Amino acid sequence: MMGSTPDLDDLDREIRDHIEAETEDNIALGMPVEDARAAAIKKFGNAARVKEDVREVWIPGWIDQLRQDTRDAFRSVRRTPAFSLAVVLTLSLGIGLSTTVYSIVSAVLVRSLPVPDADRLVWLTMHEPVADVEMFLSLEFVEWKAQAPSLETAVAYTFGDSGVAAADGTVRTRVVSVTDGFWDLVGAQLALGRFPLPNDERPLVVSHQFFTDRLSGDQNVIGRPVTLDGEQATIVGVLAPDAVARLPFPSWRYGLSRRAAEIFRPLELRPNPYPAGQRNVLAIGKLKPGATQAALQAEAEAIHARLVSGIGLPWTRLQPRVRPLHEEVVGASRVALTLLLGAALLVLVITCANVANLLLARISARQREIALRMSVGGGPLRILRQLLFESAMFASLGGIAGVGLSYGLLATVRWVMPDAIPRMSEVVVDLSVLAFAAGMSLATSLLFGLWPAVMLIRTDVQSVLKSGSRHVSAPRSTIRAGRLVVALQLAMTLVLLAGAGLMLKSVWRMTSHPPSFQPAQILTMRVDFRGTGYRDPARRQAYAVSALSSVAAIGGVRDVAFTSGGDSSALMIEEGKPEDPSRPPATISSVSPGFPQMLGMQLLRGRWLADQEPGGAILINDTLARTQFAGVDPIGRRLRMAPSGKIVFVPIVGVVADMKYSKIDAEPGPEVFVHYSYAPIFGVTIAARADGDPLAFATQALAAVAAVDRTQSVYDVQTMEQALAKSIAPRLFNTILLMLFAGVALFLAVVGLYGVVAYTVAARTSEIGIRMALGAQRARVVRMIIRDGAPSIVSGLILGLVAVVAMARLMTELLYGVDPTDLPTFIAVTACLSAIAFFGCLIPGLKAAMIDPAIALRAE
Amino acid sequence: MSTRDERIELLQGTLDLLILRTLQPGPAHGHAIAKAIERTSADVLQVEQGSLYPALHRLLKRGWIVAEDGTSENNRRAKFYRLTPKGRKQLSIEAGKWDRMTTAIARILHGSTEEPT
Fold it and tell me: How far away is chain A from the Cα of B26, in angstroms, using its nearest Cα?
């Protein structure tokens, strides 16, 4: 019969009665009344302690056991601080990195978008196969929305930058125009006011950021007028603080700088039939409950076919595309994140291997202790439990440190590269992430603690105790296992290093320029023409020319030039040739004559643009020359241009080498650079090179350009190097993370190798001592130790190279200008890893050579 | 385990045995048990009276004794402890062990035919 916990309230009464009875006894024995009670209390002892002890009796045995085991494990962890630190550090690196990547992946790829019915939202667009671009036209949007039975609703939006009049000039603002129903669809919350109503006259909704930065957080802003590109509008609502970050779309595209949406205004679309002017829009659709994406795709194709029947190219070339909104938002980061997840898992496996190796190495050190305990009757299960408790202790410490590391990493990433991946603001260390970290640490340490523990318990107690040696070598199978683990670690490290190497080379390829191009020396700034006054192309041209001359007038400026920045594109049609709509359109940059030279372009044939070009002049890039003028000399041929609506034919005067200068991770397409008098300018980037630090004269240059026309805002004042760096931020993010992983893997693998080699040296101390006593040279001892580690290194490297060649293809999409089987990279990383691994063996080898034979032999 | 822990364990075992022994004739409440132990062991055990209670609860938990409400000699409500059949059996086992041990100690102290190891 087992007793159950009694009512401990009774105990108080019982103790009181006890003392009472004792007092009465004392009085009966003739003690004075006042002393009797004190004596009874004294004799009883500490009542609080008694109650505590009684309560403890009823604590279930397993809790007591748990406490005991934890205490023992903690003692054991503290007894070998260096070993414990190595295990905890290893675990924290592996867990920290994988937790970081897991939290990013779960927020970005797994969790649904923070909008109502996120799983029913789809991205609506069309694909243009020749230029391989996606675009969506207002006519298609209106017709799909009206006719597709699978669509419950759809919204379209556009965005761009506008000037908002402020006390200190014109402030450039990111404006998003949205159709009816947008706010319902995204489920945004307001901090102040309301969403626009149909009868509002130019209503605006502003972001919370804009509200605090530009409107000083004034609670009375509702109804306040705002001048947007010279037109009056009224603020009707202020969004809640996190509303913009939660909007399910990117607010940067088409060469706009990345920035968050600040002002929202209504968008009204009037469907013009093809082939009249179409507006390019972005659109989100909401499927009816139960409707499928495939059904909508089919419906859209049918509608599109009706719209373009009898219209011809290029409209018939467009193909409707419907895909989950989530995919659109996450976009290209999916491949990169999957790669990073793979890398993190590799690091985790290496971590596990290292922990197992460290624990294996400890087997020999503890064999005697365990054998002794088993011989005095410690049951194998009791000992196994204790070993597992030690592993769990390492797991918890490593897990805690890992989560801390991951907090730090995420904070760093968010701080250094906030725009590197979409939805980064949603990445948090939440319960699921913590659960992941806890699960990972438990799994790694229990799994890899169990293996050495079982090996230890299977030890033959008698032989260990009899051998009497202070240091017992692990069984041969243990050493073999350790070597195998090291070989696998080196192989995985090689895979990570090769991946990081390829990415690094891609970034290097992107950022390496011809020597004549010095992006750090060039200051750029951008003006997009806003307002009715600038609808006239001549006015825009005049602006650009006067901006040029006012910057040139600043002392110290050596060159100044401008470009429209490839903001338009058109099919290139040669004079006297038929239109060929199957060709991709070429990007058109309207430039001032000095611009190509300033960028360090290379002239392949012909001549540069001259200051005065009465008949106009065009430079074409190599890609266009190769595709459109294969086998013929393009110089002197004339291309159709329409600088101000009127068609003219402008001669090609030169061919320049392909160059990527605005978005360096994109392959160059066909491109033309036209003297500014013969091509349209929609906006202008002014570039200037001065003596000394370009940012030092930025204020002066900005003032000079702004003075040309105060109603136009000048923005993105930066060196060209900064602009280029921004365009490769996501790639840099991947590269840096992958390099971090490779670095950690390298560190862990070398620690693992060092551990195994150092362990064999320790196990062979007496043997080495004997050899040296018999006259072996120290160099020979070093060679012997290195020969010992060599098989692991060589087999690891071979295995790694095979894996690299097999897996590199997966990276193709992430590389730029580098073949996935780039031999120099592979040779470099293999050499690097071999060298480091060699040192991992050399150090224990040198230590072995320092062994004093006398001491080594005496130690036994 | 430290020597301090061992000594406490030894004392606990002795105290448990003494309690079982005290309850052999019939149920008793806490104070009466304390008095009886003090009388029979003649102050050999210098323990505080309070330490009786954790020992009682240990025995309750093992099912060797049970607690029941009753009335004390001076007509007060009190908790009485009674030996269970299981406790009675345990007492005879423990007492047997104790006897053998004391005999062995006595033999060592007073000289014996065997060499002590």
Answer: 19
